Fold each of these.
Amino acid sequence: MNLRNTADQAFVRETNLSLVLRLIHNQSPVSRAQMAGITGLNKSTVSSLVDELIERRLVHETGSNSGGAGRPATLLEINPQAGSIIGVELGVDFVSVAVTDVLGNILWRKREDARQEDGQEKMINQTLQIVKEAITAGKRKNYHFMGIGLSTPGTVDVDKGLLIFAPNLHWHNVPFVRIFSEQAKLKVFVENDANAAAIAEHLFGTARQCQDFLFVFAGVGIGGGLFLNGKLYRGRNGYAGEIGHSPIMAEPSQTVCHCGNRGCWETYANQYSIIQRIQARLEVRRSSIIPKLMADQNAPLSIPLIKQAADAGDREAIDSFTEAGHAMGQGFAGLINIFNPERIILGGPLSMAGEYLLPAIKETVALHALPEINKQVEILLSPFGPDASLIGAIAIVVDDLLAHPAKVERR
Amino acid sequence: MNLRNTADQAFVRETNLSLVLRLIHNQSPVSRAQMAGITGLNKSTVSSLVDELIERRLVHETGSNSGGAGRPATLLEINPQAGSIIGVELGVDFVSVAVTDVLGNILWRKREDARQEDGQEKMINQTLQIVKEAITAGKRKNYHFMGIGLSTPGTVDVDKGLLIFAPNLHWHNVPFVRIFSEQAKLKVFVENDANAAAIAEHLFGTARQCQDFLFVFAGVGIGGGLFLNGKLYRGRNGYAGEIGHSPIMAEPSQTVCHCGNRGCWETYANQYSIIQRIQARLEVRRSSIIPKLMADQNAPLSIPLIKQAADAGDREAIDSFTEAGHAMGQGFAGLINIFNPERIILGGPLSMAGEYLLPAIKETVALHALPEINKQVEILLSPFGPDASLIGAIAIVVDDLLAHPAKVERR
DNA sequence: AATTAGTATGTTGGAGCAACAAACTAATTA
DNA sequence: TAATTAGTTTGTTGCTCCAACATACTAATT
């Protein structure tokens, strides 16, 4: 039982190096003196740390700031040429790959449909193919790749780099890190999709300074990324965050959840539930423009289509979103009472209808969360929309970089 | 915004000192060499750390262990004479004070009924009086007091030492730390009762090595202490853990919760709900021995009394506990899905009926929690029963001691 | 335009202190 | 006596901190 919660001087250096780098990452541009003030570190210590970060090409000087009296400050920023990251999002029926810089700016991307019925091997090979494409495209532009991040539905053993189990894909024990690092000769990280999205919000999104927030991933199901006490909480075995299966809504007539129970929160608030609501409404009323949209586009009922109808002012569409929002709000209220978070961020496919869902969510939360707790909670939309998990895949690599800057070679 | 997540040599020393002390605290007796093996620290470093702990009288050598070949190890233990702790539990209608050693062994205790209707000042003075009594009793026995811990219902600002708001007591902004430290000239700590109980389980109870567990405090309401990633999670403003108000059970005919909503989990599983169940049953059937017990003892319906009936085999009592257990199980299942904890520990007044509740809880959890997640979760009774929060008050002092051993003076 | 004062930034070199490494002594068993 | 394991001693490395210093600018005055 080697717990290794021990500290030594190398740890001190790594901690401070990481602290300064994170500070530059989300307060840039900053000067050495400012950082000394913020962190409480000595000026000379900050200088030494910054020197090292510059040597490792993670940071560079960029102009100076001559405001008031005194010597003007030299401003520091993350070096955009520090390197590039490859992010891979594995969906149930698609694969998405992106290349970004260290700040999450997308430089290249590609998305392909995938059929998990074709089998695990084929889908993984397809993914590897796109990754190789990204690498050759990057080499042509002289990118220096620093790592690959992979986000996947299901439970992940982060340390072993293993997908333990993904119910939607029917996959068990897939050694992603081994597979991808063998092929690409790069450091590889794997993480659950909702968790990855939460880290993305923390690094690049709406939760930059936030110590305690929840990311709610709404789509086929409702999953959560729990960011608590300044870090991701994964639970004992990495299963934490199955917020959609609070089983308390025990009205026996309700739909059976795919988990086998009745009355799970997510059966009232996932994308299926919205489609069902619409179908039920269309059977009764005929005033909606949705049937026409479906016919015109020769497309089945889907969230984007319903959103389109809502945008055109369609009552049935708007009301269905509102109903789903109320159901979501019930769940959010419970989460707020349990976690007292600073923020809750809604992402995933359903978040594209956020403008219709959010007001309903907030309304229900105001009714059902304990007022004292709810007072300061912000409920926000993810700025990444459907790309939340893809940016998440990038973010897990960047997060490792920010945590261990000394792993980057001096050049 | 001085976040001070910085590290320096003092921090290294404190970390390692604390690590070694914690190791001795829950693995004792251990030798220096063993600890070097477990922690990965250098033998000489461990020796230096142990020397300092001995100088501070926190640890002492105790015999030696001549097992196999080689020089026998000198065994180390926490020094029971390191000092004594005063714990204060503030209840809604009682005050309890205990004196223990550093290992939580009770040396002295006293409990008095209190009436919050008499007002805040009177109740606090009554408490201070008992604390003074404890101190004089201790001085007679030459105890060296190291601090006072106070656990209270409601929301606590731990850093400011302030009770922010306790709905049951109707108290607002009580500066407990200031009040008690002025009177007793000792370091004082305040914490919410469920949180304190969770720390007690971590240090002295059923969650010793546990990084991720939940303490469920069941009584008038249902509160929770969330111990995640190896430390207590308090949320943004210290309100985290209001697990009893998940508002999803929306059957309109149900009892209104004291929070104003309908269908809160706790209205189905708190001690009131059990009493109501019994009352409803007694109106229909007359076979129960409960009315006789009430008459004999000239006492109202209460959990201890129902427990007594259950022990005597009374069907109505047992069935009521079972029903409440099933309701609790619904909530537990949700918590298991959300947190994937290693353990859930049931404590508080209701836990005295644990032998009847636990089987029903486990049954419902098995039905409603996701099987993958539930597989390894242990649901246990707190060993402290009704004293969970009192021991908790002790624990918050001991925890500070273990975290910052260098604050203890060399003698 | 030149001078001087004032202020804030960032650098330098030494002090203090932590863990570490290696060589040692100590105490036991086979 | 040899082997083995426990714990100590001595010297090394590398970290932050501190105080003094050099640098670069603004502002006021001559």
Amino acid sequence: MQQTNNIILSLIEKVYANESSKNVSLKKYLKGADILKQGQITQHVLIVKNGLVKCFYSEENCKEFIFDFLGSGEVVGEIEAIRHIKCLCNIQAVTDVEAYSFSTSCFHSLIEQNREFRDVILGELAERLIKTSQRASFQKAYSAKYGLLKLLDIQKEGNLKLSKSDMASYLGIDIRSLNRLLHAEQDKNVRLISHTI
Amino acid sequence: MQQTNNIILSLIEKVYANESSKNVSLKKYLKGADILKQGQITQHVLIVKNGLVKCFYSEENCKEFIFDFLGSGEVVGEIEAIRHIKCLCNIQAVTDVEAYSFSTSCFHSLIEQNREFRDVILGELAERLIKTSQRASFQKAYSAKYGLLKLLDIQKEGNLKLSKSDMASYLGIDIRSLNRLLHAEQDKNVRLISHTI
DNA sequence: AACATAAAAGGACAAATGTCCTAACAACAT
DNA sequence: ATGTTGTTAGGACATTTGTCCTTTTATGTT
């Protein structure tokens, strides 16, 4: 889930300071705000300064699938910029969020002229591809129970609290199933505890 | 599934011709051959000249998940080169395959020096991320039936025949489930036909 | 031809997951 | 305080998917 990418953040902050916010601006979003909407044309690339955003598809059958949570130092809208396409998915602020914003043309010239920036973006794309494909594989190879355990770990570790609805969308299951699994886990813990007494 | 990326292919063929195979070599693999094995250290990046390869994870519970089929003009091992990591997954030849092979250091200097190559790789990564995340979402939002219909279309379109086992691994379901779904589809067609008589 | 081996098909049952509903509860505006 | 809305919880049932097994059908080999 959200890993802090300090390199890209300090890079963009350097640009922000140098160019005295001509090309780069700092935007703020309140918790729950829509940052990008699926299908919308966008002209900007964002780099999260702080806070957490969720990236999710809205499928035609009205189900949502969260395929990533992005945090400090992570990039949003770069795929759309690279491929010159409309927004693939929705981006929504899970907490209050600050993000550096710059135009796609600015993004392209950074890629062109700033070797470090380019390498970071390449690495970022590769990393995300790894995460995404590994998760897809895991979710298909194991029952939702194991996905839930992983998710609970991530939440504990990152000290982040997700709504039940978000958890279900991340796991790709129904809320009802999530509740059942949580219940089963709880039961198991109770049994463990009473066993140790 | 496999889309032909002519740009990168002609690019690498130019390099192959120019450098008289000093840095780039053309390798051949027979159908079924292991091209890369998960966890193995690799020093090469490959670009498929012709044929089809499958990329799949072997999970610890012995299940396999095919997350992509790559064809002519598509790149293999670039993520490992970018992130300097061991092979993420297995790559296996589905048909007989010819592929251009070059060292990771050669890959990096191409990225560095050849703008066109770099842009193509960036585009390739972005495109694959789109495919992967969209498929993950689709597979969770819809029952396997719809995934199967999509897969059948892809197969017809690409005129490619997959084994049942590969189809199941691609859909992330058991062979037994695949057979059931195929059966149901067949029944539906029979009903449709007898209805039109 | 005879055999070995792998791939495909499907029965029977168990487990996991989804759908539809209703109820309880908290948060919040009027 | 009251109504409204959104979130959480869970019962009951249907559907989907997995697991285990056996049988059949191809495929290749000696």
